[in-house]
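Entry 14. Ran structure prediction on the chain below.
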Amino acid sequence: MPGAETTITHVHQDEILTGEAVALDVQPLGFFMRALGVIIDMLASIIVILAFVLATTWLGTLGLIGADVIPIVTIVIAVLVMVVAPTTIETATRGRSLGRLAVGGRIVRVDGGAAGFRHAFIRALVGVLELWFTFGAIAALVGAFTPRSQRLGDLLAGTYSERTRTPALPPAPSGVPAPLVHWANVADVGRLPDRLSRRIAQFTRSADKLEAPARSRLATSLAHEASEFVSPVPDADPETFLRAVAAVRRAREIRAIELENARVASLVGAATTPHSDSVPHRPPQ
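Output, structure tokens:
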């Protein structure tokens, strides 16, 4: 309608847009991890097929099954293992399988919802061609050229493999050490080079994983470099000094970003708000 505001939502490659126009950040499973999961599933299916074939052959040698029935039973077993079993397992487990459990993946719809029977059946039916008849060649070729490593069955069913195992979040950064809280209020770390600042931040994150001699040596070296750009230099051990410098630098950078965002928001608001005290233009007589 006229005068209504239009909101534009930018959706990136690794995001999905829900029905409420909310962009969700998702992580598709990578090409090689998907290939590994498919190989595991196919190997498990081959083992099951071979077990049924050997059992059928053994029953045929005992005369319990006629020789003319063995090919029919073999075809039925192949259909059950290649189509029926994957469809049933994927539907019952909401997109999971043995291989996807091993690599941490799950089949979902392109809109992020859970895949159902129709999606599983289409994927299994197309999988007979692209996985079994071509030994995975079609699936590998299509998956290599699609953004989310989707195979042909995924494209037809409208699904993709979502990563369910995400790396652990990094620990929260520590604040200024207690002995240097008062120093932090007057410290000048603005002249600290960005490269040295990144090295100090990296040291504070990984210091607990270093051996004591290497930790002490690296802290002393970094503290000596940083002391040339920090004023005043506190009376503290090198590691405490570095942790305080990293915390002060981080806090002030966050504050600068917040102020910049507030300034931009105020300028945008002022530009879009009409001025009520503006004098209307009077046409010439």
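The longest strand covers residues 105-109. Will compare against last week's run tomorrow.
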